[in-house]
Amino acid sequence: MKSMCKIVQATTAAAWLAGCGAEPAPEAPPEPPADLVIVGEHIVTMDEAFAGATAVAVRGERIAAVGDADEVLPLAGPDTRTVELGDRALTPGFIDAHGHVSFVARLIDFVNLSSPPVGPVRNMDDIVRLLAKRVAERELPAGEWLFGYGYDDSLIAENRHPTRDDLDRVSLEHPIALMHVSGHLAAVNSAALAAVGMDGSTPDPDGGVIRRRPGTNEPNGVMEETAAATFTLGQFGQIDAERYEAQLRRALDYHAAFGITTVQDGGAIPPDVAVMRAAAGREPFPVDVVAYVFVSTLSDGAIDEFVADSAYTGGFRVGGVKFGLDGSPQGRTAWLSQPYAEGPDNAPDDYVAYPTYDIDTYKRQVAGFIGRGVPVLVHANGDAAIDAMIEGVAGAVDADALPDHRSVIIHAQLTRADQLPLVKALGIVPSYYAAHPFFWGDWHRRSFGEERAAFISPMKATLEQDIPFTIHNDAPVVPPDIMRLVHIAVNRTTRSGHVLGADQRLSAPEALHAVTLGAAYQYFEEDTKGSITPGKRADLVILGENPLTADPATLADIPVIETFARGKSVFRLE
How far is CA 351 from the centre of its chain? Predict the structure, then answer.
């Protein structure tokens, strides 16, 4: 017969010790009550193991429990906040797969020259009027720069960019610089040209174009790519650290109002990184910020020594680096393998645009980053740029022993069907600029023809090949409105009502996955974010309606009621 000591040993260690005459082990202290309990029939967990849950408990920064209400409610205490959802829905916090929060911060006080539904501009006179109004309202002294953003030549009545002559109507005493809605072009006046010493003798910079007055070398005020950066990055960046931090915190609150709990600065410059790191160290950011540093802003020594942060400090970390290989489709500077159907004014019939970064340099540098385990984002809109992106990754990895690098094609809009198998084989993650079909779908039909335009952001084809992917807004190009992004990905309806590529539409669950668990995977954070799972970060969003059961035509109208980041309420609709 077995001894009692051995029989009890088969149950628990504490009981065995008691049965053998030893002092019983002290019991673990009970867990404190939950800080927050959310109860309802519309909890979208994005985790099949917890599908159908009717309650979620949060303790501190983590999700403590997910399950049936009768199992979770006992975790509440006298001080627990309990939320009854009713007809509202709970989802994981939204993750910004690509955006530029530094630019959002800088543009907060600039003149909004966007067209509806983002802004008020319908024609060139509106641009001139709004700029002149700002000069008068602020009583700007002569010589002080005036900035605007968001103008869109594809949407204003004249279907062209503002020139120096248009902007000279506003002022000859104030340098004026406007950022195109794409962020890849700029329009400036004569005073701005003079301020930076740009004239008819100034050559086009590498990776950019200074557009000229017909028949002369005189700049007409429209700048492409690296030429535009002289005025955007070169002038927008002139802001002191204290003011920048204040505007950054306003920008983070703005993102939280759209349910975003992880925000990207996808092309940060080193001075901004220093300010963000110091600011987060003094007072943690309300939501997480992940910065990817523009390789073109790093010195050779910094490139060789670059290391990404593995953990957040005060809600901030450096996630990796960012390359930019071409321009934008709406600006008609995306680099193609076949000519545009309709290119920029005066472009030749064989116009395909151009790379904005030396491709051989990119291939050498990306191999170094991937080899050192540094995550990489590569801006590539046109299919020729995507070819170059893929070639760079292919040269950096061993296909037979593929590292888990998750290099990201940012935008990936004109991806060809034949590129997708390569993307899958190399472990590349496309992040599609899925807002484009609504904002510029009709313009793309003119630029690329019906067939190429219909395959813009081929999300369904990517899903069918089981390739991880994400979708994004690219704020401030369009606002960081995640529910509108989901709406566009599901409907793909243009401004004119045309469905652009019906076969590339996502279902609501697929689109929601792309901005939650799919985006967490892109960040290497799927173990801590992206789903409502016990132990994960308590990043949550309460929506006015369940997006999985709502009419797909109304997804953009679903309001964000409340946003929780790290278990704390960071936005609440009044």
Answer: 29
Element (H, E) at 529: none
Angle at 490 between CA 469 and CA 325, to 5 degrees: 40
Helix 383-394 / helix 359-371 crossing angle, nearest 10 deg: 40
Nearest to 292 by CA among 266, 274, 253, 261: 266
Burial 400-409 (b: 16+ CB within 10 A, else e): eeeeebbbbb
- Stretch among 189-198, 227-236, 263-272, 446-455 having the lowest mean pLDDT: 227-236
Query: CA 501 to CA 448: how far, in whole Å?
Result: 13
How far apart are alpha carbons 322 and 264 in whole angstroms? 12
User: Exposure of 461 by Cβ count < 10 A (0-12 exposed, 13-18 middle, 19+ buried)?
Assistant: middle
- H-helix or E-strand spanning residue 149: strand 146-151
Alpha-carbon gap, residue 365 to 295, rounded angstroms: 9
| Main-chain phi, psi angles of 220, to 5 degrees | -90, 0
Strands 176-180 and 146-151: parallel
Decide: 162 and 171 in contact? Cβ < 8 Å.
no
pTM greater than the 0.85 cutoff: yes
List the 316-324 sheet strands across, edge first.
94-95, 260-268, 288-294, 316-324, 376-380, 408-411, 429-432, 470-471
Helix residue ranges, H only, 91-240? 101-107, 124-138, 164-168, 190-195, 226-229
Alpha-carbon span 296 to 298, nearest angstrom: 6
Task: State pLDDT tens for residues 162-213.
Answer: 999 999 999 999 999 999 988 889 999 999 999 999 999 999 999 999 999 9
Place of tokens 């243009």: 494
What's the pLDDT at 412?
A: 98
Indicate whether 343 pLDDT > 60. yes
DSSP helix/strand/coil, 275: helix
Nearest-CA neighbor of 38 among 13, 7, 10, 69? 69
Mean pLDDT of 448-461: 98
Is the dihedral angle over the CA atoms 522, 523, 527, 531 positive or is it negative?
negative
Q: Is the dihedral of CA 44, 50, 52, 54 positive or negative?
A: negative
CB under 8 Å to 158, separation ≥6 — which residues?
123, 124
Sheet holding 111-112, edge to edge: 111-112, 146-151, 176-180, 185-188, 219-225, 208-212
**The pairing of beta strand 429-432 with beta strand 470-471:** parallel
Chain centroid to Cα 470, Å, comes to 10
| For residues 82-94, average pLDDT | 98
- Cα distances (angstroms) measured from residue 171 to each of 44, 135, 284, 539: 53, 9, 42, 47
Tokens of 3: 């001894």
Rounded Cα gap, residues 22 and 565, in angstroms: 46
